Each structure stands twice: as C-alpha cells, then as structure tokens.
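Discussion board: Methods & Data

I've been asked by a reviewer to show the raw model output for two of the constructs in my manuscript, not just the figures. I'm not sure how much to include, so I'm pasting the format here to get opinions. Each protein appears as its amino acid sequence followed by a line of discrete structure tokens. Is this the kind of thing reviewers expect to see in a supplement, or should I convert it first? Here is construct A:
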Amino acid sequence: MSNSSLPTLPASDRPEVAARLRDALLGAAFTADGLLELLGAPAYAALARSETVPALRATRGDTPLETLVRLFLLQQPVPHARVEDVLPVAECVGSGWLVSVGADEVAATVDVRPYGGPDGEDWFIVSDLGCAVGGAGGIGSREEGVVLGVGGASTTLAGITVRTPVSAALDLGTGSGIQALHAARHATRVTATDVNPRALHITALTLALSGAPAADLREGSLFEPVRDDETYELIVSNPPFVISPGARLTYRDGGMGGDDLCRSLVQEAGERLREGGFAQFLANWQHVEGEDWQDRLRSWVPRGCDAWIVQREVQDVTQYAELWLRDAGDHQGDTAAYEALYDAWLDEFEARKVRAVGFGWITLRRTDSDAPSITVEEWPHPVEQPLGDAVRVHFDRVDYLRAHDDAALLAAHFKLADEVIQEQVGLPGAEDPEHVVLRQHRGMRRATKVDTVGAGFAGVCDGTLSAGRILDAIAQLVGEDPVLLRDRTPAQIRLLVEQGFLEPVG
C-alpha cells in the first residue's frame, strides 16, 4: 500500500503532548456541546455533511473556540499569534499536530473532531484532512490509504453494540478508532486491527487525545493478526463491506469477490468468541437470483452460535453502484471514465447473478446450546438508538424460550413491556376492528398483529396470574373451550415474548 501522497501524521508516541493538547481543547470548550452553541444547529449539521461554508461564516471572530474550529475542522491556516493564545504551539508543531505555513501561520495536519461519548464524555476523533465524515456520501477521495472519521455506519455499530463489562474486546478494521474508543469504556483490554498501518496510527491518536487507555494495535487483514489461542468476549467490526469490482479504496472495498469478505468475517468469528460472548458487524450481502437471501445468510452463521441478523436496507444494483461511485467522487471526473467504472460494476453483478444488495447488522452470540437460534429478518423502520441493551435482552429471551416448552409457558407469569400501545384498525362505525396491532415505542419499535385473544391476554398481563390462568378466564368470557384455547395460544405467547412485547416475571 502506498500512502506517499498523504500528509505525514502526528507522532503517536508522545502521549504527554496529546494530553496537553486535550487540556487546551477542553479549556476552549472545543467540545460537541461547545460547537453546537457557537455554530448553531444548521451550521453544526452542515459540518456533519462535510459542508463548511456555514461554519466559516460563524467563525469570523477571534475567540479561542473560533480559532480551533477554523484550524482543526475547517482546515484553514491561522496566524501563529492567535493559536499561541490557545495551544502549546511549539509542542504541537514539534509533535506534528500542526505545521508552519508561510512566515506567520500554522495549519493542522489532521482533522480533529469533538465527539460526545454515551455518558457525556468529551472525546476527539482524528481522521485525515477532509475525511471527517465516514461512509457513503461523497468523500471524493481516491487515496488508497485514506482514513475516514465517523459516519452513519460507525455510529450505528456503536449504538447496537452490547456494552456489558468484558475482559477482552477486539475491533477488526478499526479505522479512526471509534469502536475501540467505545470499547475502552467497558473492556479491560482492547485489541484493534487494520490492514492499513495509517489507520492504526490514527487510532492511537484518537485514543490518546480522548484520554482513553492505549489499545493493542496490530496490522493485518481480518483475524490474521489474532493468535490461535486468543479469544474475546466482544468482537466488533465495521469492515470494508462494499461489494465492488476490485479494491481501490482500503477503507471501503474488501478486495474479495462479492460478499465473501463479510461471509468470511462472520464464519471465522465463532471460534474467536468465548462462551456467551458477542460478535457484532455491519455488512453488505448479495441478493442472488434463484437464492433466498435469508437462507443465504443463515449459511454464514458458524456452529455453536446464536445469531440475529437484521436487514435494514436493500438497493438494486444500479442504485448501489451509483452510491459508491459518488462516494469516491468518480461522478465528478471524466464522463467516459465514470461510465466505464459503472459498466464494470454492472458486469460484476451480472456475472454473479446479483439483483440487489442488502445492508444490515449481524450479531452472533457464542452458546453451548445443542439447538442454536438463528433469526434473520427485514426491519427497515426507525429504531431507537442506542440498541445495545435491546440486543442483549433479545438473546436473554432466546435463552428463556429455549428453556420453556409450551407447558412451562402456560405456567409462567408475564407482564406487558413498557410503552406498548394497542391500535385498532377498521372501517368507521364497524362493530369489530379488522386488525388489532400492538406497537412498541422503545428499542426496535416493532408492531405485530394479534387476534382478540392475544390482545386481551397482553392487556391483562401484569405478572399476577399465570398465562394458563389468564387464558382460562378469557375462555370463560368468550365461551371457548379452555383446553383448546390453551393448545393454540402458546405459539402467540412465544412470538410476543420473542419480539419483546411480553416480559417474563420471576
């Protein structure tokens, strides 16, 4: 890999300089909250889209915070004297965070972006200049080794990750280090890998500038840098999952055929997980002519693992190709070259009989069960982030249902989950509704259709009576044989528990 055209990075072995720089940034309120107050919501949101004009207009003054915004976020040279009032300039230049420009100005060598941690921590994400927003959206960089900052994919993965205390966590393809930074909050030891040595360097800078412990940084692809005897309680990866003809861009193109990189990542994770440990990934997968996409993904799940796979989005191959060609800025260059690249993407998809590409989340949990649970579903609707607790509880419910047959379910007690409402759909004036829907307002925000017995059962569940006792009472009210009702209802109870509408009590 050649990074010769990319600027030299700051020294990553000078933690004392990073600590002093961090203190100076915090002292000037160079934080997520401070930026929002200075710039206002529209300009702040524009920065997240890599649009700088509103922020330039909002930082025409000479306050310390305005100086830092123009220096680190807007990549503008700033007079040495102004910076001297805010930062330890000599140390920052000596360590490579700043570089002298002309006779009396300095400029930043990297983008430093404030990032609010889940508990209000003031963190800073380092990335290459002009690449603070990661993922699709028009980065416009064709540099092979460029390191992006935080984008929608990064924050999605951080939000769905289970955050229980662990002794060892692994971040595969760490990039700018955002997942390693989150993991450092609840993992005794964090290992971060990347095929791009520049990414490992930037991860070290992100952790140091954020005041987080250093990670064990290792160069290599996928699980190559992991020793045979090493296992983890948490594995996370926002891998280079883009399905493309070739591997031009290290940060996004896996370099394997089709979706083989994501498949390999999932299949190899099982043996690296400790009992009860989680592996969580973002991924793309192909929708291949003549194949059921759900069956295809089930085949990826390694033995000895429960799995929950959620497809969040599907694009046809033309939309997909256009999205990622724009990501690299190919649409802004020579028209003939763009059309040739577009044609190459479509040739690749046609050769593999790919009709669409799915995007979503894959979560594995190591289990000793003889009957692992694999759930593959499509859920394109809005959810409530962070979802880490909801993911953990999903697998708790899997354990509960696996341990309870129908007779045990009828003997159990349940309560209706918080913030579940009932909706009735039907024609105005009709005696009975056509549909009864239970809807969640937390977590996955699911909605499920139930019959009148299911709705009545859920409405009565407060943990007091067993499921069987409730069904007996409903049978008496509706004039139905209680034995028949007990026989046909456990499947509906099981679904309501599985999807989180009902919670076991005790």
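Construct B, same format:
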Amino acid sequence: MINIREIILNILIEYDRDGNRKPSLLKDTLEKYDYLDTRDKSFIKRVTEGCLERNIQIDYIIDSYAKTPVRQMQPFIRALMRMSTYQIMFMDSVPDSAACNEAVKLAAKHKFAGLKGFVNGVLRNVSRGKDQIKYPDKKENGGTDYLSVMYSMPEWLCEMWIGEYGFDKTEKMLEFFLSPRPTTIRVTRNLPQSISVQELEQNLGEAGATVRANSLLPYALELEKTDNIKYLPGFKEGQFAVQDVSSMLVVEVADPQNKQVVIDVCAAPGGKSMHAAERVYPDGTVYSRDLSDKKIQLIEDNALRLGLNNVNIKVNDAKIHDEELKSQADILLLDVPCSGLGILGRKNDIKHNIKPKGLEELTKLQWEIVKSCWDYVKIGGTLIYSTCTVNKAENEEMVRKICNELPFKLEDFTDKLPEPLRKSASKGYIQLIPGEYGTDGFFIAKLKRI
C-alpha cells in the first residue's frame, strides 16, 4: 500500500538535493500517481506546496526546538521534519499526534530508528509550543527579519521591496502570496449565444466548482475547488480559456481591432495571443512566436481548442530579428521573460531560484529582446511592454530606456481600463501590486512608435 507521506518526502528530498526547485516535479509526480483518489492527491499537493511556500518559517520553527540546526540534518530527516512541522502548524485537518506518530514510523522504516526519539521530541515540542513561538520583532532591522520569517521570503527581496514600496505595502504583498488563489478563466467567443455567462457559471457550479464573477472584467470568472479543469463543461468546446486577469488587461490596453496585425513574440502558453486573435477575428492576424517546439505546441493546442485559424504560429527566438515581421505590426505584444516576482503566489519555486545577480541578467535579456523586435511595429503602431514582476529595474526603468533610445513615446490608456485601475494610467503605464485588486503583480506600458 502506498504511503502518501512517503511520496511527499521523495519530492521534498529531490527539491532539496540540487537547490534548484523544478516547478514540474510536483506536477509530474501527481500525474504518475493519478490513480490515487482526489483526497490523497490534494493532500500531496497541499503539503508539498505548503512546505515550499513556508520553508523559511518552518526551518525557523524547527531550529527553535532542535539542538541540531535544520541545515545540518540528514536530507531524509530534514524533509521529514519539514513535512511534519507544516502539518502541525498549518493543517487543522491533521491531528498533531498523527503528524508526530507518522513521522516516527517513517524514521524507523527508513533505517533512522536511532533518531526516533529526536524526531518525536522535537515535533511534540513544536506541537505544545506552537502558540508561543518567538518570532523576530517588526522593529528590528527595518522589519526585514520579521517579514522574511513570517512570510518565508528571502531577506534580500524583503529589503528591496521595503525600499521601493515601504513596510506596510510589502507586508500586504507577502500576505497575498500566501493566500489561496482561484483559477481565473476568460469566457471566449465560442460560448454559444444561447448561453449567457451566468448560465456558464451555473454549469460550472453544478460540475462541482465554486464560481464567482471577477470584479474587474465582465468576461472573467474565478474558480475554486477544481480537481482538473479539463473535465469541466465547456473546456473541450473552447468556451473558456485559463488566463489571469492581469494578462487579460494587456489585451484590453492594446485594444486590437478586426483586420489588424498583432505580433506576440514571447507568446507561450498563448493566453494573450488567443485573446488578441478573438479581438481581430475574422480578418486580422496574430503572429505568435516562442523559442522552442515545446512552447509552440502549447500555443497550437490552445488555438486548436479555441477554433482560432487566424493565428500564425512558429518557433523563433525573440532575441533574433525576423526581417519578415519588420513594420508589420499594428500592435506588438512584448511580454518579456522576467523575474516573475509578481506571481510568487502561483509559482513559489521562483523565490527559491532567483538571485540578485539574476535580476541584472534579466534586464540585459529584456533589452536585447526590445532591440531585436521594436521595428516590427509600424510607424504610428503600438508597443505593449509587460512583465509579471514588481521590480522597477525591469519595469519603469526599462520603459524609460525604450523612450530615450528608440522612437517611442508613452501613451495614455486611461479609457482602456476598468474604473478602479484608471488613477495612474495617464502616464502611459501601470504597476499592479500583488493582491491590490485581486490580481497578480503585473506591469503594463503602452508606447506609440513615432
């Protein structure tokens, strides 16, 4: 009989082995054990993701009670302590005694019988003292230590954001990253005229999903309690596409019209390409590009499911200029590779993998892509520069560089946004702070070629 906690341990040990948190590891494991019942798969997902999301706080708690620091523990024991501490601290559905007992059994099973007393003693102390743990003080070190431990965020990121956004706004961002997030879908043109968006909501609800309308866009819905979105009514028929509202806003700002040409150079998995293709349908064209066959396959799959035959899809590295696209675009979507610091709540591997030097390298890559692609825009055409980060070097500073060194100027797009977002769009860009309007952290700038 399969022990689901052993599955979690194997994932955590693998994550810990090379220090590089592979985002596909959990997904691949869940696919391997797809025959397990939904409750077991949900437990694996919850505990694994929880240990990664709360890693700094969990290690702080263990170190508060263990004589041996976490970093000096055997890899198996380290993973076992993290998994069990997460259950004790953050899962009311698991009795503390069960988390402790299962940990002791696993230690013995994996030839660590000599450490059963250590495992049991530390975990029992965590259980007894979990409401009295002394965390860093908010007033110490500008609040950096407090935020880092309480929200499991690397200290250098906390320090950077406190400097850019202040303590209070940074803490709200970090709270949002650790909050449960719904899956957001965009209702497409494939929804039959005989079915309203409200009826689609009802159909999805009857299939077991919790559904609510998004507060910013009328065609966006938020779903919870979805085991596998592919099995929901309307997915196979292309009646909706999975896409975050911040990504939908990129196309709202671009405002493509029928007969226009849109070029999307960093397109995978194709959310913005598909959204734009619907807007320019039937006589407009979207050129959708990305740098690998695997990414192109994702775009092709989306286009096929949504029935969009006006999307021209090819492999192309955005750093390499494509002469055929020169001066072709009414709209160029430049959603460049970025640090992803605005979507840490969805991809917690990012905070483990990103380093300060990596931010510098990314800005160089972004500028390389901008220089390669800017002349795809017709004179008078539009460049939409966007990222899913909240790092000013990748956002405001990059846009200033574009305007200073290339023939573009920022353009007011206040009238293209939902009312709550309009206050800052007159300067030609907006920075969505994670959680401020229920969206990911996202940056959007609109520039006109002059």
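Answer (T.O., handling editor elsewhere):
This is acceptable in a supplement if you add a one-line summary per construct. For B, something like: Residues 264 and 333 are 5 Å apart (CA to CA).
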